[in-house]
Amino acid sequence: MTESLKGISGSMFAGKTETLLKEISRAEYGGKKVQVFKPEIDNRWKTEAEIRSHSGGSHKACIVKNSSNIIDCLEPDTQVVAIEEIQFFDAEIVDVVRSLLEADIRVVFAGLSLDFRGEPFGSMPTLLSLCDEIEKPTAVCTETVDGKPCGAVATKTQRLINGKPANYSDPIVLIGDEEEGYHARCPKHHRVPGKPTPKPIYQSK
Ligand SMILES: [Zn+2]
Fold first, then answer.
1. What pTM was computed for the model?
2. Which of 22, 63, 76, 77 is the most exposed place for a label (fewest CB within 10 A)?
3. Domains with residue ranges and CATH for the chain
């Protein structure tokens, strides 16, 4: 194995796609053949064959149903595989990434570290453990405090339904999920009603 694994992990609106696009550009500038994959579940921007960042950058991508389709769609001269929204893939994605590395193909992925409840998302914990390098871009908390945005570093994704925080027991992925229902939040302003609270470190008498 000669190639390395890089993970880009963060909340929504942290610029993960932009960071992934930068990695792709660097590889292509260095003369590498890059293939970009994303899971079918991500219907954001309603475009079928590209990844696109909030700041307007884009790159063509293969949309695949299962993680094993990445191997099926791999072209023989590919040297770098970039994977967008990796948290939505099935658990087999870990083996797929390992097989790519074993074949001396560099892998760079972007994914949501936590779901809206603040719990680790899909295979992200395992994938991040395997990384040689991790980049964690952050967003800005947009919660209104005294009429202004909070502005603190945001590492969590808040889901709001009709303006109210979604419950812990709500499904992790909603059918027809739109970005409008999500907001970047700092730890202080991330609210999940019904979330089990950790055991307190001090017992009250
Ligand atoms: Zn905040």
1. 0.91
2. 76
3. 5-137 (3.40.50.300), 140-189 (3.30.60.20)
